[in-house]
Amino acid sequence: MADLAANSAGEEIALPLPARVRVMLPLPLPEPLDYAAPSGIPPPRPGNFVRVDLGSRRVIGVVWEEADGAERLPVEKLKPILDVLPAPPLPPDLRRFVERVAAYTLAPPGMVLKMAMSVEEALLPRAPHRVCAITPSGAGLLESAELGQKLTPARRRVLQALEDGGACSAAELARRAGCGAGVVRGLIAAGHIGEEFVSGEPPSEPVPDWQSEGPPLSRDQEQAARRLVERVHGSGFSVTVLDGVTGSGK
């Protein structure tokens, strides 16, 4: 039955029940399990990754489509979804593929789903990480070194690496400069390098320009490329074997 609450007049009113959500878990289960939608936010949609309780542990699963005619527990007895993860949803085509592979191989669909989401860490928000950046003091020190003032070669390489390559972790900075971590820590302690936490999300990569011209081809490569293009335009089945050393541009 629905939960009851009292209104301003002291009368009991029925609170709306949470929505029922089916969640496929990456476990050897024959079908998705029912959970109650989290309160305060819209119900998650099919494909969303969610975190739920299962016995004494917490599991990440995928919201699945509704099934007709299934026997259900009353929604008020269902465990609530704990969290909706900010990862992109699992596309409908991939969800149908999971079902098809499970039916074809007589395997539990949850075990097929496990292969599609085997690295759970990829679904979680990235933790903020600490990076090093050159400070005005460090930039001034580097400029003074260029004017002849004394600066050890290792420290100069570190500051130059930051100025040329931008902010990075302390370990990456030491690798760039070809020095030990102690040199980086010394510059941080002296105030020539600052540390700050940045968002864990990596910067977005530019979309590759597939229309840009590739490297120049040799005569043999041009001949092979021409034949491949002709076969593609022919829209028929064909088999082509390219002979050559691995990495030679086949």
Main pleated sheet: 5 strands, antiparallel
Q: Which of globular, elongated, flat, extended, rod-shaped describes the shape?
A: flat
CATH topology of the largest domain: GIY-YIG endonuclease
Helix content: 25-40%
Q: Please trace the helix and strand order, writing H or E for each element.
A: EEEEEEEHHEHHHHEH
Structural class: alpha+beta
Cα-atom Rg, whole angstroms?
Answer: 29 Å
Q: Average pLDDT across residues?
A: 85
Report strand %.
15-25%
**Name of the CATH first level of the largest domain:** Alpha Beta
In CATH, the homologous superfamily of the largest domain goes by the name PriA, 3(prime) DNA-binding domain
| Individual helix count | 7
Structure in words:
- There is one protein chain.
- With 250 residues, this protein is of the alpha+beta class.
- Strand 5 and strand 6 form a beta hairpin.
- The protein has 2 domains: 17-123, PriA, 3(prime) DNA-binding domain (GIY-YIG endonuclease), CATH 3.40.1440.60; 129-198, no CATH class.
- Strands 4-3-6-5-7 form a 5-stranded antiparallel β-sheet. A two-stranded antiparallel ribbon has the order 1-2. The protein has a two-stranded antiparallel sheet with strand order 8-9.
- It contains 7 helices and 9 strands.
- It starts with a strand and ends in a 17-residue tail after the last helix.
- Helix 1 (92-105) packs across helix 2 (109-116), helix 3 packs across helix 4 (153-165) and helix 5 (170-177) crosses helix 6.
- It is flat and about 80 Å long.
